[in-house]
Structure formats: C-alpha cells, structure tokens
C-alpha cells in the first residue's frame, strides 16, 4: 500500500513538472510565432534577409512541448520502457543545454558566429536581456532546474514501478497478475 502511495505521489510530481515544462515550451513557441507575424507585417520584405533567428526558438519550444508531452504520458502509463525512454530524452536535452551554455561561457566572441542581422532584432533582444539580466538568469535557472528535477523523479518512479511489479508478481493471486488494471489497492493519478 505504501509503494502505491509513493508511486502516485511521484506520478503526480512528474506530471506537474512536465506540465510546467510544457507551458515553457508553449510560451517559447508562441513568442516565435509572434516574432514571425511581426516579421511578415513589414513592408520591406524583399530587401530583408531570411529570418533565421525566428526558427531556432520555435524548434526549441516545440522540442520542450514534445518532451513534456512524452513525460506526461509516460508518467500516466508508468511503464519501465517508456520511463527509460523519457529519462534518455531529458538527459539528451540537459546535455545539449549544458553544451550550449559551456559554448557561450567559453567562447567570448560567440556573437561573431551569428549571421548579420539587417533588421536589428538580434540587437533589440540582446538589449532586452541585458537590461533584464537578473530576471532572465532566474528564468533560465528555473527552466533548467525543472528539467534536472524531472530526471531523478522519472528514475525513482521507474524503480518503484519495477519493484512494485516484482512484488506483485510474487503474490499467489495469479488472477490479478493477468488483470493489473483491476487492482483496487493501487490506483495511479
């Protein structure tokens, strides 16, 4: 009974963290759509270069949404294979973010690698982040913290599901082993 309560709490926590991560992904994607809409409303589109700076944030936002959706479904199913896949996806995302931050910290001239921005949107965004650096820093730390916290929760949930199935398989009631959804003692959220 205690393992079922623990599993339910971990399931709820993982669903909630993935909900927050999904909101972050949706907000990033909506910001990109807004930037694309404001780009398309310009009158001098023939003279401007391709808006390369809009599509990477849109891809990141959609990737956050995809991973959070996968995590939400995985938490609901509580399957060992799915939890492992989700842990692998979130680990790859964390490693990619860590590599990006390391590149930005170690490469002092990273802005020179970016293509020329004829419109000045990059400069406007850089100025906004510079003026609100503390808020931007705390938002980035919270996003990274949510993702890092999802990984151990998913792994602990995977362990509880694995050991719960081992204990469940050793019970003499083999009829309930064939019908796991009918177990009234363990209801997941």
Automatic annotation (TrEMBL):
Keywords: Membrane, Transmembrane, Transmembrane helix. The keyword Isomerase does not apply. One of its GO terms (cellular component) is membrane. The keyword Transcription regulation does not apply. It is found in: Membrane. The chain crosses the membrane at residues 12-34, 54-72, 84-106, 138-157. InterPro entries: Tetraspanin/Peripherin (IPR018499). It is a multi-pass membrane protein. This is Tetraspanin-19.
